[in-house]
Design a protein that fits this description.
3 helices, S16 Ribosomal Protein, Chain: A, about 130 residues, 5-stranded mixed β-sheet, alpha+beta
Length: about 130
């Protein structure tokens, strides 16, 4: 079950008003949601944004993925938050890659002779089957 942070449209025709909601990825735009975390009014100049910052941070930490529009709204409301998350994510990826490379190097020394033996064994069985 993937969780998204996205907009839900309210208001009348030609007078839009949006709620920033947390919902399942499969739910409809104006359908069931898990939580309302803010509002977004495009008609005011400048656009009015209200967010429950603690709840947005919670949902992002749990793994909710914001849509492009909501991520831009969050960046405007909570400056610098995504940069910190991005740094942590890249550090985690680098650590995982270095562990993987270390495992591959240590396993590669012992796995190469086994692979050569296995290939030689397969060739012998194919020749026997052909004869």
């Amino acid at each position: 079950m993937a969780v998204k942070i996205r907009l839900s449209r309210l208001g009348r025709k030609k007078i839009p008003f949006y709620r920033i909601i947390v919902c399942d990825e499969d739910s409809k735009r104006d359908g069931r949601n898990l939580e309302i975390v803010g509002t977004y009014n495009t008609l005011t100049n400048p656009a009015t944004i209200t967010l429950k910052e603690d709840r947005v941070k919670y949902w992002l930490s749990v793994g909710a993925r914001p849509t492009l529009t909501t991520s831009r709204i969050i960046i405007k409301s909570i400056p610098g938050y995504f940069e910190g998350l991005e740094k942590k994510r890249l550090e985690k990826i680098r650590a995982t890659r270095s562990k993987r490379k270390a495992r591959a190097k240590s396993a590669g020394k012992t796995a190469a002779p086994k692979a050569a033996k296995a290939k030689g064994g397969k060739k012998a069985t194919t020749k026997e089957a052909a004869a």
